Amino acid sequence: MVFAIWLPKCLHWPFCPGIFIAILAVMAAIVTFRERPKTWEKAAWTFVFLGLMSLEVWMMSIDRDANEARERAAEQMQLKGFSDIGEGIKASIAESDRNFVATMGRTNKVLDNITGGNPLLILPRKTSTAISFQGWYGTTVSKPYLD
Which neighbouring-strand residues pair with 143? Predict the structure, then answer.
């Protein structure tokens, strides 16, 4: 069953890696049972084996090139997807900033209406050598005692 699935897929150009090694293995098994082969026959089998090994290396390089091309395409798709996500996040942050500025502007107007403007609160504080006035933002102004 498995043989029927991969055989049609691998027996067309370019062949799947491993086809030429399988052929080489069958031929090597056949050659081992030859008794007293002549010198020219040994040389011919050696060249056939070298040819099959070269074809196998070639098929592996074709398969590797195809795989690397698929990987590059997938990487480009991922990079584009991440870039789109990043642009969406940037747009969302910009929209949030605009909304925050608008909300704070309205809040400041409401606070100005409630408090009557920009009040400044000054509280006197007595220290050992001077009277300090602490302003709204925590600034301290010291005046010496008037005796």
Answer: 131
For the chain, where are the alpha helices, taking DSSP H only? Answer: 2-10, 19-32, 39-115
d(CA 116, CA 21): 92
Sequence-distant (≥ 6) Cβ neighbours of residue 15 within 8 angstroms: 59
Residue that the structure tokens 């399988």 belong to: 22
* pTM exceeds 0.90: no
Helix, strand, or coil (residue 2): helix
Confidence category of residue 35, pLDDT binned at 50, 70, 90: confident
Domain-by-domain residue ranges, the chain?
A: 2-116, 120-147
**Alpha-carbon distance 51 to 49, whole Å?**
5
Q: 60 with 18: CB under 8 angstroms?
A: no
Backbone φ, ψ for residue 75 (5° rounding): -65, -40
